[in-house]
Write a sequence for this structure.
């Protein structure tokens, strides 16, 4: 990835970095995420299909609502579709999009092997296709966090906290989702330089639905197998399994094990506030900014701008107990 460079409002970003003392992960493709709202073209008379894999988690909900709000703010009409995190429903949903013939489609998340054939159909139908966290070859632009930098930052914090040695339990149930794969690959890459820090096999499998409960049960069962001192950390590509794992550690009195994840779900951040919390770090995404940015890219494209980057990256925030209040304020969580 290119080095971080000053983006649309560099003085603002530098000020945030000084004030928060947190890691802001960005690349040169982030510029549109910080553009002044006044320079975004109107969507008046345009129908924009907002296709969601699901809306059951913080990231989903915030991204979805931001898309709806921004389409309306720009004068367009949002067509909302929610597959309820069911692949069969999602396929049917994407088929429906083709028949509805909107002016553009934004698909949020999804396993590429499932959605790509249907995204291809949307593209072949001449409907401009945009994605969020789904880097399909058929997407004109994918708005996402910088997941390589995110994965590196999370791995680095885990390694630092563990002192470069010990054993790590990993949740790896969604490697088919590109952003999850990227984050996990960065963990494995970082661990190559720390041979005394090892991933415990077999890996754990996070599931949907009942993610929190299932992660709680899996970790609770394993704690009997691994006594104190045998596990340093638990890692997940997102923070809903991290939430379940953390609750299991608290209930078992095993908070010497630290957990790591991505998203910044409010329940996870609140749990981080607790004394002796097992949550080591979360890389907090900015889902509202991601959703808003995706819609603005659609508006620019429909207004004739054809030089959009293949991917627009939105900064993420490495969050620990030390900078938690500032991160929550920046994201508007308070």
């Amino acid at each position: 990835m290119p080095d971080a460079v000053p983006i649309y409002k560099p003085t603002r970003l530098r000020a945030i970095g000084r004030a928060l003392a947190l890691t802001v992960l960005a690349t040169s493709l982030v510029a549109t995420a910080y553009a002044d709202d006044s320079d975004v073209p109107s969507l008046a008379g345009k129908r924009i299909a907002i296709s969601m894999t699901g809306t059951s988690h913080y990231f989903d909900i915030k991204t979805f609502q931001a898309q709806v709000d921004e389409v309306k703010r720009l004068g367009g009409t949002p067509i909302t579709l929610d597959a309820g995190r069911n692949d069969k429903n999602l396929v049917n949903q994407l088929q429906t999009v083709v028949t509805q013939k909107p002016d553009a489609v934004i698909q949020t998340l999804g396993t590429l092997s499932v959605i790509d054939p249907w995204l291809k159909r949307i593209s072949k139908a001449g409907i401009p296709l945009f994605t969020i966290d789904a880097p399909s070859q058929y997407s004109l632009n994918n708005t996402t966090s910088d997941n390589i930098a995110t994965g590196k930052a999370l791995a680095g914090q885990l390694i630092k906290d563990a002192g470069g040695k010990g054993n790590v339990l990993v949740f790896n149930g969604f490697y088919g989702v590109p952003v999850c794969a990227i984050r996990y690959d960065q963990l494995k890459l970082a661990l190559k330089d720390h041979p005394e820090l090892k991933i415990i096999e077999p890996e754990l499998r996070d599931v949907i639905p009942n993610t929190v409960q299932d992660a709680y049960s899996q970790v609770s069962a394993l704690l009997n197998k691994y006594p104190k001192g045998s596990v340093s950390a638990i890692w997940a590509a997102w923070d809903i399994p991290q939430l379940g794992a953390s609750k299991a550690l608290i209930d078992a009195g095993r908070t010497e094990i630290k957990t790591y994840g991505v998203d910044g779900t409010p329940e996870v951040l609140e749990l981080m506030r607790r004394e002796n919390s097992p949550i080591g770090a979360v890389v907090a995404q900015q889902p509202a900014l991601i959703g808003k940015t995706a819609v603005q890219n659609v508006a620019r494209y429909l207004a004739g701008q054809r030089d959009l980057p293949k991917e627009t990256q939105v900064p993420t925030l490495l969050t620990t107990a030390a900078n938690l209040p500032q991160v929550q304020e920046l994201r508007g969580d308070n």
Remarks:
- Confidence is low (pLDDT under 50) at residues 1-32.
- Residues 31-142+288-306 form a domain with the Rossmann fold fold (CATH 3.40.50.2300).
- The radius of gyration is 20 Å.
- Residues 162 and 232 are 6 Å apart (CA to CA).
